Amino acid sequence: MTASKHRETSDGRTRPFGNLVAQFLTAAALSAAVAFSGTGPAHSQSESERIPAGPANMFKPGAVFRYYDGTTDPARIEGLNAAINTMTAQSEEVAATISTVRTGVETGVAARSRDDLAHTVTTSIEGTFSIVVQAGFLRALSQTDPAFGQMFQTSRMNIHLPDGESIELPVLMAAAVHSMSVVAAGEKMRANGPPRDLAGGYDLLTTGTCAVPNSKVTITQRDFVIEGIDDDRLVLFGAVGVTRIYMVSNEQRFARVTDNAGGTPQVDVPDQASDLFEAALPAPGAPIEFQSITRGTCSFTLMPAAP
User: Does residue 41 contact residue 47 with C-beta atoms inside 8 Å?
Assistant: First the structure.
């Protein structure tokens, strides 16, 4: 996700999406978007630096469950809808964009299988986490240069809607759309009955170049959403479908800051997509074998631990 320029609408005015963030990012996400200590990096011309980014809250067990709980809370959903309605009233252009988004979410969720929706939920949660990382990092840099705070309010990103279409949105609107997708997908998945219960202890065995190490993990589950915990650290999260399961490696995120010939530096944060994994759901008690579908350099197995 690149935040290097102030994007404007076709009529030349910058839309004030920033003042809506508190209305549609969940409390858990906002509490995670904490400022980092210290000052922003200094660069000479043409230099770039890769810097750790991402608040510690994102590695605490329960972080994904807190986000998911917000998408099932009627008060939070009401706040989300109110924020979207506020955005819709800003202009005809924004209203048309949100109409496209609503159609993409509603028709896509209605048409997709529970396996596909597990993928949607997993990528939407990861997309929200990436926005939180960007918010925290740019907020920290804005303490010494307010231009970085404006970057976050005006930056844009491409997201995939549940109907398969891709759309470029202001990053804060994208956060709302991720929540819309999880709300809609969750309603459909819960209505179709409980998923397989995968909770328990596992040995995590990796092959290839992996961000997650070999370890013993405990899988915890809330409805169809799962977390993988290693020694009080959230290392995996995802969602369970009917025949497939999706997981993200919850690794350290980084920002790449590149000098821009004396102007405001280009900031890519996170500087690469997290690794998304897919597995066929085996018979109860059998190992679960995951393959990377993002980077393709890692596979891992969750081997049920001996009783």
Answer: no
Q: How far is CA 269 from the centre of its chain?
A: 12
CA 73 to chain centre: 19
Cβ neighbors of 12 (< 8 A, separation 6 or more) are none
Number of domains in the chain: 1
Residue 2: its pLDDT value, please? 52
Domain-located, residue 281: yes
Largest CA distance in the chain: 65
- Among residues 122, 252, 101, 68, the alpha carbon closest in space to that of 170 is found at 101
Whether the pLDDT of residue 39 is over 50: the answer is no
Q: How many Cβ atoms sit within 10 Å of the Cβ of residue 62? A: 15
Average pLDDT over every residue of 21-40: 35
Joined tokens for residue 147: 């231009």
d(CA 21, CA 18): 6
Looking up tokens 């926005």, which residue turns up? 131
Compute the distance between CA of residue 296 and CA of residue 55 in angstroms, rounded to an integer: 26
What is the C-alpha separation between 209 and 284, in angstroms, rounded?
A: 28
The amino acid occupying position 161 is L
Q: What b/e sequence results for 142-172 when a residue is b if at least 16 CB atoms lie within 10 Å of its CB, and e otherwise?
A: beeeeebbbbbbbbbbebbbbbeeebebbbb
pLDDT single digits (tens) 242-296 = 999 999 999 989 888 888 776 777 888 888 889 999 999 999 999 999 999 999 9
Tokens of 20: 């809506």
| CA-to-CA dists, residue 129 to 18, 54, 65, 278, angstroms | 17, 9, 13, 19
- The SS3 assignment for 200 reads strand
* The one-letter amino acid at 105: V
Tell me if 154 is assigned to some domain.
yes
Report the chain's C-alpha Rg in angstroms: 20
Q: What is the pLDDT of residue 228?
A: 97
Domain membership of residue 119 as a residue range: 18-42+58-304
